[in-house]
Write a structure and sequence with these properties.
The chain is of the alpha+beta class. The protein contains 13 helices and 13 strands. The strands form three sheets. Strands 2, 3, 4, 5, 6, 9, 10, 11 and 12 form a nine-stranded antiparallel sheet that branches. The chain has a two-stranded antiparallel sheet with strand order 1-13. β9 and β10 form a beta hairpin. The radius of gyration is 33 Å and the shape is globular.
């Protein structure tokens, strides 16, 4: 793979609509305004004043006074010119609307969802790995309803100055209603496997009545303390995620038959990287600590949305294939070297699950311009994805991966990366994100270990 993240180039074109604006129309408009507001030169009468004076002379002749030419007052002249200006502006607007129709207020509702996604400055794509991972869990609909109500509060907290605490209170009460109602509670617990039900019941009680539960969050909102609300909200969402993970013991879809023999990850896994400087120098110290010779980075793998990609990566990690590899710092990414000889020996298809879908697409990129967004977005700092295959972008590299260093300043419309929907994202950095910006070309992965999820890694015979 080349050092660039993608060979796809997104170009923006400016369109003036179906009707071309012809020079003759603009020439007519210019002529109209030029004649109306043409400045007078020394020794010449202003055409407007002259016209008024001539009219008055005719009136004087009819009354017998030939030498009387009444001078129009300045306010009258200004009123006349303002009316002329209004007329010219109206003409210009009509010309522009005929030439290149502009959307009026009633056209707002006809804007397509795709354009709404692209042009909205507040596109609700997850901006942290934790949020993206939580949204990717295929959990019970009642739990998702609680999650949606709480996540809305995180957006409301961003509003400066007067925060909508009343709306936040309504969101928590809605979540509490779902959590407490007997039918919904039974539905939540029924989705948890039998051997996990006791843990699920404890978590459910904690979510409702615990120290950091929904009732405590409601009190913080009533106190209008944004810091307490933020802390309480994070704790409640963590509990929600734990419950949802209990409800999702495996994949919610069947893999295509042609991929049944590939390694796959049926859920979540955790990989821990130990990084050291290639030149022997140290990483920045942790708060109050000493400079570090090595740094730790943890990545959560998401097999719910990318089972083949995450499974291939987890297998390579378990086999020690990434121990000792060199990293390179390129534009907005930290990319691994490509050791083909250590790859799994088969080609992994591009794998992306679109939002709102129940299974991934294979060998197909998403069209962000048409409103397609992935469940696991690239537009998150610390996203982890596989590079493209060197011969075909329908496939991912079977070995080379990269950490994406999302930067909103270099993003496109809606804050989306220009490469969004083009790569198989399969996880996010959850610990050690601050280290990513310090990594330089030549730094080394001393070790990569699968410290969680080995029981979810399925290795068909022969792998």
């Amino acid at each position: 793979m080349a050092s660039q993240l993608s060979s796809a180039v997104i170009s923006f074109k400016v369109s003036t609509g179906n009707a071309a604006i012809t020079p003759s129309i603009w020439r007519q408009a210019f002529t109209l305004t030029h004649l109306l507001f043409k400045p007078t030169r020394t020794g010449r009468e202003n055409p407007l004043t002259a016209k008024c004076c001539i009219s008055m002379k005719r009136s004087s002749t009819e009354t017998g006074n030939r030498n009387d030419c009444s001078v129009i007052s300045l306010p009258s002249i200004l009123d006349n010119r303002m009316k002329k200006l209004e007329n010219v502006i109206s003409v210009l607007l009509i010309i522009v609307q005929i030439s290149s129709p502009l959307p009026f207020l009633w056209d707002f509702w006809s804007i397509s969802p795709a354009k709404a996604v692209l042009y909205s400055p507040d596109t609700k794509v997850p901006r942290t790995g934790e949020l993206a991972l939580r949204r990717a869990i295929p959990a019970n609909t009642n739990m998702k309803a609680i999650q949606d109500s709480l996540e809305e509060i995180s957006y409301l907290l961003r509003i400066p100055q007067r925060k909508p605490y009343g709306t936040m209170e309504g969101n928590v009460k809605k979540a509490l209603k779902v959590s407490i109602a007997m039918d919904e509670k039974d539905s939540i617990l029924a989705s948890i496997p039998t051997d996990m039900k006791e843990k699920g019941s404890i978590l459910h009680t904690s979510l409702t009545d615990g120290k950091d539960g929904l009732k405590a969050l409601l009190n913080s909102i009533k106190e209008k303390d944004p810091d307490k609300v933020s802390v309480g909200l994070a704790a409640s969402l963590d509990t929600v995620a734990e419950l949802e993970l209990l409800q999702a013991p495996g994949l919610s879809f069947l893999l295509p038959e042609q991929y049944q023999q590939y390694p796959r990850l049926n859920g979540r896994g955790i990989v821990e990287f130990t990084i050291e400087r290639g030149d022997g120098s140290a990483f920045s110290p942790e708060s109050g600590g000493e400079p570090r010779k090595t740094a730790i980075i943890q990545v959560v793998l998401d097999g719910y949305s990318a089972p083949l990609t995450a499974g291939n990566f987890a297998k390579l990690v378990a086999d020690g294939a990434y121990d000792g590899i060199t990293l390179s710092s390129v534009n907005q990414a930290v990319i691994s070297e490509n050791r083909v000889e250590k790859s799994s020996g088969y080609t992994v298809p591009l794998e992306i699950m679109p939002s709102g879908q129940f299974e991934p697409l294979y060998k197909t990129t998403l069209s962000v311009q048409d409103g397609e967004l992935p469940v696991l977005p690239l537009s998150v700092y610390g996203a982890v994805a596989m590079a493209h295959n060197e011969t075909s972008e329908e496939y991912s590299s079977s070995y080379q991966f990269f950490f994406y260093l999302y930067d909103k300043r270099n993003a496109g419309l809606g804050g989306l990366s220009f490469d969004e929907g083009q790569f198989s994202v399969f996880g996010y950095t959850t610990i050690g994100r601050e280290i990513l910006s310090e990594i330089r070309t030549g730094d080394v992965v001393r070790s990569a270990k699968l410290i969680g999820g080995s029981d979810r890694l399925v290795l068909p015979n022969g792998n």
